[in-house]
Amino acid sequence: MVIRHAAWIAVATLLVALAVPGCGQTVVTSSGQSTPDVRFVDVDEGVRLEVIDWGGGSEGSSGGSSGRAVVLLAGSGNTAHVFDELAPKLRDCCHVYAITRRGYGASSHPASGYDDQRLADDLLAALEQLHIEAPVLVGHSMGGGELTTLGSQHSDRLGGLVYLDGLADPRDATYTDSGFMALLEGLPAAMRTPPALDYSSVGAYRAAQQRESGFAFPEPELREGFAVNPDGTMGRYKASTDAINRAIGAGQTKRNYTRIRVPVLAISTFTCTSDRGGTDACIEHPGDTPKYAPASREEAEAITKYEAAQDVYFDRWKKNVRSAAAPVRLVDVPCGAHHIFLSHEADVLREMKAFVARLR
Asked: How many C-beta atoms surround the C-beta of residue 91 within 10 A?
């Protein structure tokens, strides 16, 4: 069993370090859905963002849609294509878009503009260019930063916010705490071993991801994210650069939810045992594999101390989002992967659809 740590999720440059002893995961297969429309919108001088338009909702005679607009924003390391399997399954209730932020994939890679405010301004400019009114913004991981900034500054332009394992505060993070990291290093070696991935082909990589981590990125995301060599093997990571990831990390701000005036749904991979009063629903699956079984009293004590330290952060992040000036629903999936919309797709879809329905 391995620790589910963001640094081990496909791309070592992912910025959010949310380390949790791993549980069994639900394997997700390729959806094989229809091809979406891909376009580009100008959001700043010399900067264009990739927009994937899946359509959906109630289609009108003019080709438009009267369904609630849902805009998906990936976490660090990923492009909008990471949602290629989730997005089509929201079309029955919503008009679905996904946007690749600057510095990633097919979007522009300028030399600057990677602070939290500029990234949020990019997203707002894209909404205006696309004439999207009162959308539900959905942000995975680092995408929670753009959601929080836009929700604080432009709640009047939004319909709601959905955080997908996106509550970790970059200015109150586990990986900045030397004491926490010492507890992490004190865990049994078997829990700290990163999963083995197979770069011999895109298909082999996906199979290894599902086997080792319980989920797999959609094939288009892998092809956007990695070079594919003439012999079919996967090469270097190409979606972004270390410099861009460092710039984004340096430009993140502390989360402040107090000025958010639209409903919030936060689906996280917390343990459900901490701050029971702060969680509205705990989704556990009987088929999930149990956590690592300690081989000695020393291992058990190390795990207990580590989990207690995690709970301190989890409780603080939950309390923080509860400070929003609007209804907040917190859902915990304790055995979800960090890419929870891939590992536990059915749970995420059910909660998101119910959230959108309540907005109506």
From this structure: 20
Phi, psi at 228, each rounded to 5°: -115, 120
| Helix ranges (DSSP H) in the chain | 116-129, 143-153, 178-185, 202-213, 219-225, 242-250, 297-321, 340-343, 345-359
Contact (Cβ atoms closer than 8 angstroms) between residue 179 and residue 337: no
Query: Residue 101's closest CA among 266, 251, 263?
Result: 251
Residues 232/204, Cβ–Cβ less than 8 Å: no
User: Residue 13, SS3?
Assistant: coil
H/E stretch holding 95: strand 94-100
20 vs 137, 171, 338, CA distance in Å?
A: 26, 19, 9
Q: What is the CATH number of the domain that holds 73?
A: 3.40.50.1820
CA pair distance 148, 120, nearest whole angstrom:
9
Distance CA 274, CA 270 (A): 8
- pLDDT tens for each residue of 175-187: 899 999 999 999 9
Q: What is the pLDDT of residues 83-134, one digit of tens each?
A: 999 999 999 999 999 999 999 999 999 999 999 999 999 999 999 999 999 9
Residues facing 115 on adjacent strands: none
Residue of 77, 75, 47, 74 lying closest to 242 (CA atoms): 77
Tell me the residue range of the domain where 222 lies: 3-359
Cα radius of gyration (the chain): 19
Pairing mode of beta strands 3-4, 20-21:
antiparallel
User: 334 near 310, Cβ under 8 Å?
Assistant: no
Contacts of 325 (CB under 8 A, 6+ apart): 258, 259, 260, 261
Domain count, the chain: 1
The DSSP secondary-structure symbol of 279 reads -
What is the SS3 assignment for 103? coil
DSSP secondary structure letters along 220-245: HHHHHHEEE-TTS-EEEE-SS-HHHH
Q: Are 314 and 272 in contact (CB under 8 A)?
A: no
